[in-house]
Every structure is written in C-alpha cells, then in structure tokens.
Write a structure and sequence with these properties.
The protein is built from 6 helices and no strands.
Length: about 150
Amino acid sequence: MKRGARTLALALALTFAAGPGQADEPPAEVLARANPFAGDPDAIRRGKGLFLENCAPCHGAAADGRGPGAVGLRPPPADLSGPDVVPRHPDGWLFWRIANGKRGTAMPPFAFALTEAERWSIVSWLRSLQPPPAAAPGSAAGRPGAVAPLASAH
C-alpha cells in the first residue's frame, strides 16, 4: 500500500476512534502560534508535496475541495484555495485543524501521520495559494511606480 493510502486509512480509522471529548476549535494559545516556516520556499515546496500525498484525495490537487475522494462526502471537503477558509484563519488554527481533523466531517486527524514540521509546511503551502493582501488606498504599494516597504517576516 502506498504511503498516501496508508496515511489516509490510518487517519480515517483515527477519526472514527476519536472520542466525544475532542474539541471543535483550538484553544487560544494554539491560535497564537506562529508558523516557523512562514514564507520559506523550501517549506512551501515540501508542503505542496505533502498536501498532494495526504490531502488532495479529498481536497483536490488545487485545494479546491474537488478531489476524487470528495464524491458523496457530506459535508463536502473545504475549498482551501478560496476566500472562506485559509484567509479567515490564523496559521495556528490551520495547523490545529490538520492535526485534529474536524468532527462531523470526513476530515481526519493527521497528528499521528504527519510530523509537526510537515503540518507547518502544509500550512505554508496553503498560504502560498492566496493572493497577497491588497494595498490600502494611498499606501506606497497602491501608487504607480512607488516601491512598497518590505513586509516583516514572522
């Protein structure tokens, strides 16, 4: 059995074994966690490969929620490429969701299948799919020919 198929099978088994005590949302301290690989091109590349192997069966190769395993799932897998999930949540939330899955859906926990660094790499790749934030009117980035200040890395 391929690693991706083993990972999916293990994750699905863990999903159904999860007890009723599993929280639906992360605690505040998890939300505040910063991605140690934010903006790192190597992490983004690794994250894409890990996503394709572990997440694309349901979320699709484009992270649009249209993978072959999504057929018949209710609720359907989230569209992670659009404006409704990734842009609306901090990195800590995305990391936590990958680790813990989502109760009431087919989203399994990957805490035992992926290392912490691998989960952060997937978060990095998901962030890379989003367009950069629009410049505020009147800012240097919004004026033709102006040079925008460098964003601080965190």
